[in-house]
Structure formats: C-alpha cells, structure tokens
Amino acid sequence: MTSPLPASSALILAGGRGRRMGGRDKGLINWQGEPLVAHVHRVLRPLTDNLVISCNRNQDAYRAYADQLVGDVEAGFPGPLAGVIAGLKVARHEWVILLACDAPLVDQGLVEDLLRLAVTCDSAAMVRQGGYWQPMFSVLPRRLLPVLEQAWAAGERSLQKALLRESVQGLECADDDRRLSNFNSPQFWQD
C-alpha cells in the first residue's frame, strides 16, 4: 500500500514571450476548445489547494485558473528560472509541482509519480526522457529557493542547470510518452 501524498503547491509556468508561436501567449491558445492552460489546470486542481501561475501578461485571463498569480521580478521575459523563483517565493507547501502551460497531455499519474519520487528521496524529482532532463515536468522542495536565487545572482539563466546544482531524482519516461508533448510550435496544433 502506498502512503498518501503530502499537501503540495502547484506552479504553472506561463510567462514566456511565445517566440515560436509568433508572440502569442501559449497558455491562452485554444486547443480542443479550451486554452492550453485549462488542460494543465484540470490535471493539477485535484492535487492542490495552492495553484500558482507565473505569467508576465494577460493576468486577467489567467486569474480564472489560479489561486495566485506571480510575475518575473525582471522585465523582458528572462526565462523559466525567474518564474520558478517567483513561484517558490509564494508557494504555501513544502513540495511544489512544476509544469509548463503548454503540456496539455500531462496526466495525474505522471504528476503523482513525480511527487512520490521526490518525497521518498527527499529531493527534487524531474522527468528524464531519452537520457535528457525535462525540467518543465518536476517536483521541487521549496527549500531549493535559496539555491536557485544564488544561481540567478551568479548569472545562471538555465532552469535545468540551476536545478542540477543539487541532487535530482530522475523519473524515466519512454521516448514516445505523449504526456510529455510540449506544444511549442504551430505543427502541434494539427493533432
């Protein structure tokens, strides 16, 4: 019998510039009749009472999907690491589920497996697919905040590199695991 999962916060990253989508806010692009963020929200909502969205524009549109909104402290869309730092600062629980707004095929099973791995090993957990880390599918202990802030202050802008400064457990997923599909370019909208 598996032990119950602890209370956790959830952080959806939706703060990007949307360069590959012609500047459109990816989280608000419709797919199967709903904005992408609605699909991710539906998976996370039953798992948390503290859903945070990091967004740098369109706050009114994102408000319906979050308990709290945060933005990057620096202007100019500095990247996901800035969004994670902002989210960890306001998260109410020790464990924080991290997902991108453009992964509408993610499911609760994957998130629960990540959370279980993180809690069991008492460290960050991140998906590994085909030998590559996938930082947009992670569970982080909130206590990583000072490590990430220190990395940021030292000039690091890569979320993956900042996270790998500490111990990270890998949740191995198959190369063709559709749950990990990122809708990063217009070609994905043809499904």
Proportion in helices: 25-40%
The second-level CATH architecture is Alpha-Beta Complex
Oligomer classification: single chain
What's the Cα radius of gyration? 15 Å
* Run of helices and strands: EEEHEHEHEHEEHHE
CATH class: Alpha Beta
Mean pLDDT: 88
Beta content = 15-25%
Span between N and C termini?
38 Å
Low-confidence stretches: 17-21, 185-191
Structural category is: alpha/beta
Tally of helical segments: 6
CATH topology value: Spore Coat Polysaccharide Biosynthesis Protein SpsA, Chain A
The shape is globular
By CATH, the superfamily comes out as Spore Coat Polysaccharide Biosynthesis Protein SpsA, Chain A
Main β sheet profile: 7 strands, mixed
Tally of discrete structural domains:
1
Strand order of the largest sheet: 5-4-1-6-8-7-9
Using DSSP, what is the number of strands? Answer: 9
Core attributes:
two-stranded antiparallel ribbon, 6 helices, 27% helix, globular
Write the layout of secondary structure elements.
Elements: E1 8-13, E2 30-31, E3 34-35, H1 36-44, E4 51-54, H2 59-62, E5 68-70, H3 80-90, E6 95-100, H4 108-121, E7 124-129, E8 132-141, H5 145-153, H6 159-163, E9 168-173
Parallel strand pairs: 1-4, 1-6, 4-5, 7-9
Antiparallel strand pairs: 2-3, 6-8, 7-8
Helix pairs in contact: 3-5
Describe the overall structure:
The strands form two sheets. Strands 5-4-1-6-8-7-9 form a seven-stranded mixed beta sheet, with helices on both faces. The protein has a two-stranded antiparallel ribbon with strand order 2-3. A hairpin with a 2-residue loop joins strand 7 (about 125-130) and strand 8 (about 130-140). Residues about 15-20 and about 185-190 have low confidence and may be disordered. The chain has one domain (about 10-185): Spore Coat Polysaccharide Biosynthesis Protein SpsA, Chain A (Alpha-Beta Complex), CATH 3.90.550.10. The protein has about 190 residues and is an alpha/beta fold. Helices cover about 25% and strands about 25% of the residues.
